Amino acid sequence: MNALILALAYLRFNWIRSLVLVAVAALILAVPIVSQVLLSGSRAALTDRAEATPLVLGSRGSQLDLVMNALYFSADRAEPVTMAVADAVWDTGLGIPIPMNTAFETNDARIIGTSIDYFDFRNLKLAEGRGLAVLGEAVLGADVAARLSLGAGDTVVSSPQNLFDLDGVYPLELNIVGVLAPTGTPDDEAVFTDIKTSWVISGIGHGHDSVLDAQADEGDIVAAASTLQFNRITPDNIDSFHFHGDPATYPVSAVLFVPNDARASTILRGRYLDPENPVQVIVPRDVIGDLVDRIFRIKTLLDAVSLIIGTAALAAIALAIFLSYRLRAREMQTAFKLGARRGTITRLLAAETIILLSSALFISFLLILAVQTRGDKIVAWLLAT
Questions:
Q1: Please, are residues 131 and 175 in contact by the beta-carbon 8 Å criterion?
Q2: Which pTM was predicted?
């Protein structure tokens, strides 16, 4: 007990050295396990969502960019297609197309313009409020709602594409009508609207608010100071919102397709095999499977590098402790001359080492536990960036 008390007193007196040793040892112990947890979580998150999505239609080009944006709402987006693609798939009667427009953001969260079918397809449930009903409404993912402290009855404003484009897109104020229950998927980090609302954000649809001051005399045209730069869809002006051009030409980032059966899936894929066709059909399971295989081939190399670095770091810690003991040689001689036995001195040094290692193990355990608890959130955030 005396050795333990003396060891604690010494470590507390040399607290900077003690903290450095504990922090380094904790990281060395935790990093390999944390990396395994995150890799396993990433693999599960990627493969589970990909396997649950039968087909994705989009612009011909990078299949990975298309899948990552359509399934995980990443920032890398392929060229958009048009609503005509979704209409053409619908006309085949082979299944249900779910158009998605992912071009906009709000408060660092992706705005997903889609149809009501998406919520049934992903089995998304409401934890608060109601679902989408009219233009200008939004439903928040669980993490977005918690991060922004928002709920039904609040509003969010879409981010403008270009602050210096006077003819471009103005932000749209979205009325929050519901919050989704947590799913542990990228849906928790998204803001969902009707796809027509996303077209309003892009400027294809708009309403005409009066610029006349309510107090102006009849015949005078005076711009009211209350006119805002962003659009606001209210019960009073919703009837004035309209769209220009052919709806078949409106932009769509991707189309998720839920076939009636395996035969319908095969038939649809066969219709888009022509490399000259600007639209491609992708099986997400195959694309993500190739990505995961590449990641885990690289993981083998990373494991070897981590082992080498970890061994070198542990050796460095052992050397630091050894040199510390060497520097304390005169201190130990003084203790011995004062009557301390060599066994007592050995117990003192052993107690210091045990305290340092125990503290490092405890911190590494807390770090691993935190990553395991928040692993789904961390993986979803990493996939979206």
A1: no
A2: 0.70
